[in-house]
Amino acid sequence: MQYAPSDLKPRERYKVLTSFVLPRPIAWVTSIGETGVVNAAPFSFFNVFCEDPPLCMFAANLRPDGRIKDTVINIRRTGEFVVNMTDEPLARAMHDSSGDFPPDIGEPDYLNLKLAPSTKISVPRLADAPFSMECKTWKEIDVNGDRLLVMGEGIHFHIRDELWDHAAMRVHMERYHPIGRMFADRYCRTDDRVVFPPAEGAKTAV
């Protein structure tokens, strides 16, 4: 089966991409409004893609009624945000935060999520997140006027203590249970893992 993207409606393209490009990591982005209300919204068109400098990117589209999302409004005003990762204990709250909240009602407050101050920016992080990355806006790319690609530079990391082996600089995978995004209302656990021996590359005769 084949499709030319130009033959599909945008919603149909979305369904194809999100059905096969999975599981996708989820950026649970906290930002702060002009009146001090803290917003927390999940975005699954997201990933990190550079370590020097540490850069991440997520895509925020317009609301169905054409309004700009609070996250984008807040980031454009402050140039700051926090990317919080989600694990199984936080998964339902993350999903619930994707609902429609007016600007004067912050998702963390409404969902009883604990906040903690960031170190280098004014936007707070989610205190119980397994990993949080304080970000400054690095670049924005407007896509067709209805979607914004937000690139952030990570300027400070927060890691839940029991998840990290500082000496080895490696995560304790048996303790970390991240949630991935699939499509519609579907998510996935990531505990069924496969480990391969190191790849040897091409073998040549001596």
From TrEMBL:
SUPFAM superfamilies reported for this sequence: FMN-binding split barrel
Entries under Gene3D superfamilies matching the protein: Electron Transport, Fmn-binding Protein, Chain A
Coiled coil: none
Listed GO MF terms: FMN binding; oxidoreductase activity, acting on the CH-NH group of donors, NAD or NADP as acceptor
Cofactor(s) the protein requires to work: FMN
Stored Pfam families: Flavin_Reduct
Superkingdom of source: Bacteria
Keyword terms: Flavoprotein, FMN
Domain Flavin reductase like: start-end pairs: 19-178
Family per similarity comment: Belongs to the flavoredoxin family.
PANTHER family attached to this UniProt entry: FLAVIN REDUCTASE LIKE DOMAIN-CONTAINING PROTEIN (PTHR33798:SF5), FLAVOPROTEIN OXYGENASE (PTHR33798)
Protein name in the entry: Flavin reductase family protein
Native source species: Bradyrhizobium archetypum
